[in-house]
Amino acid sequence: MIRTEHLVKSFDGRVVLDDINAEFDKGKTNLIIGQSGSGKTVLLKSIVGLFPIDSGKIYYNDICYTDLNFKERKEIRKDIGMIFQGGALLDSSTVEENVRLPLDLFSTMTPAEKLDRVNFCLDRVNLHDANRLYPSELSGGMVKRVAIARAIVLNPKYLFCDEPNSGLDPMTSVVIDNLIKEITEEYQITTIINTHDMNSVMEIGEKIIFIHDGKKWWEGTKHDIMQSNNKELNDFVFASAMAKRAKMNAETCEKRA
Amino acid sequence: MKLFELIGKYFILMSKVFSRPEKFYIYRRRIFDEMDALGFNSIGIVAIVSVFMGAVITLQMAINLESPFIPKSLIGYATRESMFLEFSSTVVALILAGKVGSNIASEIGTMRITEQIDALEIMGVNSASYLILPKIVSMVFFFPFLTIFSMAVGIFGGYLISIATGILNPESYLDGLWYDFRPYSITYSLIKAAVFGFLITSISGFYGYFARGNSLEVGRASTKAVVVSSIFILIFNLILTQLFLI
To answer: Which distant-in-sequence residues (6+ apart) come within 8 Å of A212 by Cβ?
Structure first.
């Protein structure tokens, strides 16, 4: 479980996150949604410690992350896996080397054990015979899958995904979403996904937090979204014609019932 | 004020770079990779520049020392001193500041803007040390070898031009090479090379590591790295000459 209390973050005097109180549950896919520029990525990067926060507290299973020193944080970071928007694979390393890197640095496994673990993780994300390829030789979906494999190679307790579907076609997006959900449930990870893809929200959003203008505006499940009267949330969720139609259909069904 | 901030940031980064590595064997492997990428890949340009400079120095000396009172062997002596004391360490360092410096700054800068450095940090890796330390160590060790190589190739260039043009007797040239030979000149040059290797890699690593924004910023960081490295090479050349030769 991850919890934030009164989290505030600003850049050059401009408040980007204002008094964020949120709880992200273990074994669930927790989604942070919001428009571009609403502060989603800043929230995610503040929670993992990439951005120092101005005030507030961040807890990882009741350990106050904000009170820890660099060395103590490092121990928690070994339990964190993160999938970045662009994959963030090391360009000069092959797929195998990218996935193996955390093992090389933090495990006492033998080379054979490491290779087994790397192959297991690559199999888990349905990536076969790609060990010797470089990131430049991979498609967008493959890059994301390698990033997932690298993120789970050390059996993390916490998984952070920054817009895992950006730049992917709808079919690949569904594959990535389902993969993250499966991994979350299988290994009982606390997963936080940052997205503005409504398909992902309706597909895997077990707990959703809506960020608007740097504030937490709404919290609920994917089922609650359809019934919400929150104007800003509705403006965001039903911005596309398809989503509007889905809501109208839901309302019609409700009336008939 | 900004200058002090910059100097402070540089030293804070260096303290991170020289902190205890996670696993030595990974760093050892990376040092050899960097020696290959930064050092071995520079042999070609060092060879080309050195052979031509050695030849040009020999030609110019031969043209300007057209006096019956000055022995021809002095041309070899002057070529050797020019190559050993200044060219093979300082001028080659300036050339490598352009080649290696821009390479390091753009590589690390690109890693910064594509979040690869963030990914390393999230894994719990000391990204500054992991990325910059192997480059510094490899260049500090390899640059002196490049300097020795440049000295040998430059002197060979002078010998070749003496044969090709007949402007002086090759035997006189070889005699001049051994005239008043002091091995300390080589030691001095190698010390300078190691210092310049450190300056190029640490300054370029610094500008790359703190690159922000987009590809334009990476380009700017790369240019700044080359300019600042070159200026510091010249300043330290003066300081080291004062310290070791006077």
So the answer is: A34, A35, A38, A232, A233, A236
What SS3 class is residue A221?
coil
DSSP labels for A10-48?
Answer: EETTEEEEEEEEEEE-TTSEEEEE--TTSSHHHHHHHHH
B31 within some domain: no
**Which domains occur in chain A, in start order?**
1-79+156-221 (3.40.50.300), 92-152 (no CATH)
Answer whether residue B180 is part of any domain: yes
Tokens 């540089």 -> residue: B10
Distance between CA B30 and CA B49 in Å, rounded? 28
Convert the pLDDT of each residue in B194-243 to its tens digit. 999 999 999 999 999 999 888 899 999 999 999 999 999 999 999 999 99
Pairwise CB contact (< 8 Å): A88 & B115: yes
Domain membership of residue B13 (yes or no) is no
Instruction: Please indicate whether, in this complex, the C-beta atoms of B22 and A106 are within 8 angstroms of each other.
Output: yes
pLDDT tens digits, one per residue of B162-179: 999 888 888 999 999 998
A192 at B interface, C-beta within 8 A: no
Domain count, chain B: 1
Burial pattern A165-197, b for ≥16 Cβ within 10 A else e, equals beebeeebbbbbbebbbebbeeeebbbbbbbbb
Q: Is A11 on the interface with B (CB under 8 A)?
A: no
